[in-house]
């Protein structure tokens, strides 16, 4: 497929997820939750997940507001991790972060991210990488947090001074 046609396809995928976000809302019986923010541009997100006794993500949702890239990335992430184990989801977070650093979709031997690979081009715009990464870092925090959802949720930020910045 020519580069222009591929870019058009990727743009269409991103716009579809932005205009029609999947898993947008709240989960009544979530047992994992974290809040995330990007102070530089104002993106904010809350990720909630219900993880079953077998370690699988049974349900996931996000709320918040932000630019089209942060919202599309959030939607795409929730679609991808639903039904996966927390270990598989955390591996996907690492693979996504690597893709944001290199600008290259992972090889199929590593991990196939499907439509999420449409976000690889964001790496050309370092300021936008934080927008695309916010949901993923927030998911990582939610899944790694030992906090009970009824307590104050964990918070992650894409601010360079943020504890959970992960080096981006």
Compose a concise summary of this entry.
The protein is 40% helix and 17% strand. The chain has 168 residues and is an alpha+beta fold.
What does the model show?
By secondary structure, the chain is of the alpha+beta class. The chain has one domain: Alpha-Beta Complex (Sufe protein. Chain: A), CATH 3.90.1010. 40% of the residues lie in helices and 17% in strands. A four-stranded mixed beta sheet has the order 3-2-1-4, covered by helices on one side. β1 and β2 form a beta hairpin. The C terminus is likely disordered.
Topology at a glance:
Elements: H1 3-19, E1 32-38, E2 43-51, E3 57-65, H2 68-81, H3 86-102, H4 126-144, E4 154-157
Parallel strand pairs: 1-4
Antiparallel strand pairs: 1-2, 2-3
List descriptors.
single chain, 168 residues, alpha+beta, Sufe protein. Chain: A, 4-stranded mixed sheet, 4 helices, disordered C terminus
- Structurally, the number of domains stands at 1
Distance between the first and last residues' Cα? 31 Å
Low-confidence stretches: 161-168
Which fold name fills CATH's third level, the topology? Answer: Sufe protein. Chain: A
Biggest pleated sheet: 4 strands, mixed
Number of helices: 4
**Helix content percent band:** 25-40%
Which descriptor suits the 3D outline? globular
CATH classification, class level: Alpha Beta
Order of secondary-structure elements: HEEEHHHE
CATH level-two architecture: Alpha-Beta Complex
Mean pLDDT: 86
Radius of gyration: 15 Å
Sheet-strand content, in percent, reads 15-25%
- Give me the secondary-structure category: alpha+beta
């Amino acid at each position: 497929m020519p580069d222009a046609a591929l870019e058009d396809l990727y743009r269409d995928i991103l716009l579809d997820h932005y205009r029609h976000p999947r898993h947008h809302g709240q989960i009544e019986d979530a047992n994992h939750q974290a809040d995330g923010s990007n102070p530089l541009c104002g993106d904010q997100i809350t990720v909630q997940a219900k993880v079953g006794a077998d370690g699988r993500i049974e349900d996931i949702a996000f709320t918040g507001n932000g630019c089209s890239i942060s919202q599309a990335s959030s939607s795409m992430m929730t679609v991808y991790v639903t039904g996966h184990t927390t270990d598989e989801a955390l591996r996907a977070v690492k693979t996504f972060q690597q893709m944001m650093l290199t600008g290259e979709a992972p090889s199929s031997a590593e991990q196939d991210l499907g439509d999420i690979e449409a976000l690889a081009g964001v790496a050309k715009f370092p300021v936008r990488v934080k927008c695309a990464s916010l949901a993923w870092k927030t998911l990582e925090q939610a899944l790694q947090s030992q906090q009970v959802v009824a307590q104050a949720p964990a918070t992650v930020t894409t601010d360079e001074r943020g504890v959970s910045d992960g080096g981006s």
